[in-house]
Amino acid sequence: MTRFLASRLLQALVVLLLMSFVITVLMTLMPGDPVDMMLAGNPRATPADAARLKALYGLDKPLLERYGHWLQAALMGDFGFSRLYAQPVLTILLPRLGNTLLLLGAAMALTLAVALPLGVYAARRPYGWADNAINLFCFAGISVPAFWLALLLILLFAVELQWLPASGLGPVGGEGWWERLPYLVLPVASLTLASIGGYTRYVRAAMMGELRQDYIRTARAKGLGEGRVVWRHALRNATIPIVTIVALEFGALFSGALVTETMFAWPGMGKLIYDSIMGNDLNVALVALLFATLTTLAGNLLADAAYAGLDPRISFKGDGA
Amino acid sequence: MAAFTLAAALAAPTIATPALAAKDELVIGMTQFPSNWHPSMEAMMAKSYVLSMARRPFTAYDPDWRLTCLLCTELPALDKGTAEVETRADGKKGIKVTYTINPKATWGDGTPVTTEDVLFTWTVGKHPQSGYSNFDLFARDIVAIEAKDERTFTIHRDKAVCSYAEINDFEILPAHLERAVFEADPATYRNRSKYETDTTNPGLWFGPYRIAQVEPGSHVVLEPNPTWWGAKPAFKRVIVKSIENTAALEANLLAGQVDMVPGETGLPLDQVLAFEKRHGSRYNVFYKPGLFFEHVELNLDNPALADVRVRRALLHAIDREAISKQLYDGRQPVAHNEISPLDRVHAPGYPTYAFDPALAGRLLDEAGWSERRAGVRHNAKGERLSLEIMTTAGNRSREVLQQVLQAQWRQAGVEVRIVNEPARVLFGDTLEKRRFKSMALFAWISAPENIPRTILHSSMIPTEANNWAGQNYTGYRNPEMDKVLEDLEHVCEPDANRALWAKLQTLYAQDLPNLPLFFRADPFILPPWLDGVVPTGHLDSSTLWIETWKAKE
User: Fold this and answer.
1) What gap in Å lies between CA B212 and CA A28, rounded to an integer?
2) Which of A202, A207, A291, B537 could form a disulfide with B290 if both were Cys (CB 3.0 to 4.6 A apart)?
3) Residues 6 or more apart from A72 whose CB is under 8 A from it?
4) Does B87 touch chain A if contact means CB atoms closer than 8 Å?
5) Which ranges of A165-213 does DSSP label H, i.e. alpha helix?
6) Which of A38, A52, A150 sits opposite B42 (nearest CB)?
7) In angstroms, what separates the C-alpha of B114 from chain A's closest C-alpha?
8) What global pTM score does this model have?
9) What is the Cα B164 distance to its own chain's centre?
C-alpha cells in the first residue's frame, strides 16, 4: 500500500507539472493580451504605456522564461499575484475553494443520502409502480437545466414564500454557522435535485446486477435476513462503481458549480476559474486549474483506497510501479 | 430567460409586496464586483460606483453635465487668474491651474487632506513601475506641481487645452498611509498598497461613507464616515451586493433582499422594460439616456465600405425609429451623430439619415451595386455585396439588434453574415488589430464635451508600426477632421469653439465613418421610499452625490 501511494503521488506530481506547462501555453495562445485589455477603455494610453506595463508584468519575456520564473517561485510556495485582483493568488483562491467545497460537499452528502436508499429500493422491486415513479423522478431531475431549477427555487422559496434568502453566503455581519445555514439551503437543493436522478440510476443498476449474483442466492439460502443480504452484502459490492463515479465527479466539481454559484451569487471556485480565464488573469487561472487537477487526482486515489476497504479481493500488494 | 419570464409571469399575481427595508439601510444590487480597490489601477464601472461613496475626485461632471468641484473649493478659470497660459522653457504654450483643497477635507482617520497628498499622488502616478494605466496624465500632461501651502497647489500642464480645469482622473492618495508602502518598492506597490491589503482602513477614505467590510465576490458594506465634511448621509449602512446573473438579481429585488438596482451597472434595458410591465407599480423605474453611443463600427479598408454612398445607403436602409420603439419601447433615443443632443456642445444642423429604402437603393445603384441576383446586389465585376457584422457573443440585446439589422439590410440587397466573438477576443484583439472584415456593433462610452480624438483622428489608426495604439478602428482619414480635432483642444473662445464642434458634427455626418444607432439609456429601479437619486448618464456615477439620498418621511 505504501509503495502504491508513493507511486501515485509521484505520478500526480508529474501530471501537475505537465498541466501547469500546458495551461500556461494554452492561456498564452488565447487571443487578447492582458495589458491591451486593461488599456482598452483608456483613450489616453499610448504604445509606450503598453510597453511599460507589459515589462512590469513580465509579459515581454519569452514563454519559457516566464514559466520558469513562475515554477521556481511556485516551488518556494509563492504562486504570484492576481493581475485583476492585486492580491496574492492563494488569498483569493482559498476562501473560494472553501465556499465551493462546503457547497458541493453538502450537496454530495445529501445526494448520496437520498440516492442510495432510493436506488436500492427501486432495484429490489424493479418495474413495479414504485420503481416507475422513482425512474420518472430521476429522469425529470436529469433533464431539468440547472439554471432553470435554480430560478424556480428562488422564485418559489425566496420571492413568493419569502422563507429563504435568494443569494449570498450569509447575512451581512452574521458570522455564525446557524446564520449562514439558510443561505446554503437553496443552492444545495438546486445541486442535489439535479444530481439525485443520475446517482439513483447508478445505484439501481449496480444493485440489480449484484442482487442477481450467486453469492446473494447463497446468502439467502443460508437463511440470512433480507435486510442483511441487501444492505451488508449486495450494497457493499454495488458501492464500488458508485465510488468510481463519485471520484470522477470530484474533478468536475469546480466547473459543475459555475451555474449554481452564478445563480445564487455564491463566491466559489467555478466562477473564479471562469472570470480568470476570461480576464486573462494567468496566475489565478493556472493555480485554480491545478487545484481542479489535484482534486481529480486525489479523488481517484481515495477511490482506489476505498476499493480495498470495500472489497478485500482488491489488493495493492505488489502493485508498485 | 424565457423560463424565468414564464415562471415570473405565473408567480406575478401572488407575489407578496417585499417588506420595506429598514429605512436606515440601503441594499444596492449590481452585476459586477469590484476586482480591486486602488482608485487608479484597473478602471471598472463597479469599482467607480462603490468608490464614489467613499472618496471624491477634485472635479467631476454633475448630473447636469457641468464640471464641478468636489474636493476643490472652486474651478480654476482664466478670468479669475487661477488659470494662466504660460510659455514653457522649450517655447511651447502650456497652462498653469491653481486649485485649493476644501479646508474641511480630512481622511477618515482625521488626517487633513493636504498638498502633501497631491505631490505624493503625482510621484506615484508618474513612476513607470507604479502600474498606473492613466500614466499619460501624470507623466506627460502634468509637467510640474507646485505646492503653495498646505491646501493650495498649482499644476503646470503640457498643453494649453480648453479643458484645463478638469482633473477628474487625479485620484488623490493618502501620503501618510501609502508613502511607506510605495517607497519600499514601487515595482510591487500595485499589489502591496493598503487599498488591497487593508481595505477597511478608515484613513484610505474620505467620502460620506467608508468601506467597513468586504466579502470578495459577494458584498461590500459601507458605513458613514465620521470625518466627512459635507452633508450628513442618511443611511447607517449601505450594502452593495454583487449578483452577476441578471435573472437572479431581479429575483433578489422581488424578494426584498435588494432595494435598488442602479443603471450604471445593473440590469439590461430590455429586462427592465419587461420588469416594469410586471412590477413597475411597486418601484420607481426610470431611464436615463446618456453618453453610451451604440453604433456600427465600419472598416473603411473594405472596398465596399470605402464608398461613402454605400455607408449612407446602409444607414438609410435601417429603420432605427421602429427598432427603438419595438426593441426598447422608445426609451433608447436614435443617434444621428456621435455627439449626444444632451451634450452642451451638440450642434444640430448636420445631415441626418431617415429610413428611406428607395434612397438607399438609389445610392447603392450609384455606387455600382445595381444588379440583384437572388436578392443580393452585385457589382459589374460580379462581386456580391456581402459584409460581416461582429459583436460581443452572449450580449443578448446586441445579438437581437444585429439580427434585425441583418434582416433590414437584406431587404436593401445587402447580404450580412453574423460572426460574433467573446468580448475578450473582440475588444482585446479583433478590433484593436483591425481584424474585423467589415462591421462591428458595440458602444463608445464618453464624458461630456469629450473630444473624440482617439476615435476619429487619423494618427489614432492602430497599426503594427504604432503597436496598435489608438481607437480609430474604422481607419478614418480626413485632414479636415484632424484639424478640427486638434483645434478643439486649444481654441477656447466660446464662439470659435462652438463653430468647431458644429463642424466636427457636420463632417462626421457627411463622412459617416461609422453608423450611429442609439444613445443607450441606463435603467434605474428604485424603491418608492428612496429619494434623491439623480442619475448622471455619463462616466461619473450617481453615487458621487449619495449624501443627498434619503428615505422619504
Assistant:
1) 38
2) B537
3) none
4) no
5) 177-211
6) A38
7) 27
8) 0.86
9) 20
